[in-house]
Specification:
By secondary structure, the chain is mainly alpha-helical. It has one domain: Growth Hormone, Chain: A. It contains 19 helices and no strands. Helix 1 packs antiparallel against helix 9. The radius of gyration is 23 Å and the shape is globular.
Amino acid sequence: MTSTYILLPASQHLVMDKVCLELHKDTSICSESGKRENEEVESRSSYILLLYAAITSLVSIPPAMMLGSWSDKAGRRSVMLLPFILSLLSGGVLLAMVLVPSLSVYWCLLAAAFIGLPGGHVSIFLSCFSFLADITMESSSSRTLRMAIAESMIFVGGMVGFLLGGYLTQNIGLIAAYGAYIACHVLAILYILLWLQDSKPLNSNLGIISTKNEVQESGAMILKYASLSFRAVFKRRSCQDRLKLNLLIICTFLNNLVAIGDNSVLLLYLMYEPREFTTAMFGVFNSARMFLLGAGLLGLFPLLMRCFKEMSLAKISVVFRAASYALLAFSTTTWMVYLVAVLGMPGGITQAVIRSLSSAIVGPDEQGAMFSFSASVEATCIVIAAIIFNGLYPLTLSTVPGMPFIIMATFCIIVLILMHSTSSTTICVRFRKVVKLQFPKVVALTASC
């Protein structure tokens, strides 16, 4: 996540520089931000960045659908390594674009393909969370806490990357920013190769084809492993576990839709009157918000776990998140906007609990397949969120500028309802188990009827 947030401002800066240079053919003009940021440069840069995001997200879905199921058999380390190795190539391409001014701006699309080809952050998420599930099967509470710590790194890494990326890009240069991006991936590769011990490879009972057939029929292998991800999510399970898993994946989809929609319109909204945030103010707010979300998972959540059940905490977290978006939609002053960050502090708990509950439903040989499907669903949110929120914001700007955040709060309420339905399903299942143990004859008679 640190490397991802270093890459975001650096790539936007690089694309705008390249577009300006191709349009004006004059480095002196493009070195002045006021002349560089004209309508023609902005519109063309926006188009290229949209292509960049689309390639990164859409290309990552098919590999992620396959790699998760494959990791259930071959182990997690190989799936962890692939995204970091190809991201090194993407960093090399972007660095070459800085060092060689004659290279076209469209070379960045090759860098996007390198990031997306092994599944990108989708593969990293599914392999890391699957690894945690593998080594924490003894207790649901310890698994949830480990998931929460891993989830918090999204925000902690985001905060560090956001601050570091902005500083390096603005004060030192793009070479330093891409150097830090490459260094993050080198450190991850060294950790995986030299330190991390793979969880024991498992033999799947889902009918994986043999290795010889996989070598001979690579196309069939891809389809086979992709189908395993669907099968792990939609196959029949006892005690309504399939329904519970499907509801949790829908919650994951809505949570990620809100998160990406937030990122896509927040800067535009805060810079609009009467808030009129500067770029520096936005950086401080975003960093503080990520810090509080990470602190909520690392510090607040373990303490609350001693007093409340994880499902209750997930519901409370959703309520606070919905309230923060409702407040943001009607914020008119700077202090109200910063209060949003404080109010949304517990907001990251929900997704950590969802990941833990989902991993508890599937078997040990289905962890990668399930997280693969879930992460692929998250990847589709990039395009869908852009269509919904970037399309809605200009339409409501003159009437209700905060309408996108009202929609986000509504999605949070839907997540709350689905989470309640999930917990109700769990209570119903437990009641059935008690009845079956205490009154076996009644159960048998009911089944025969």
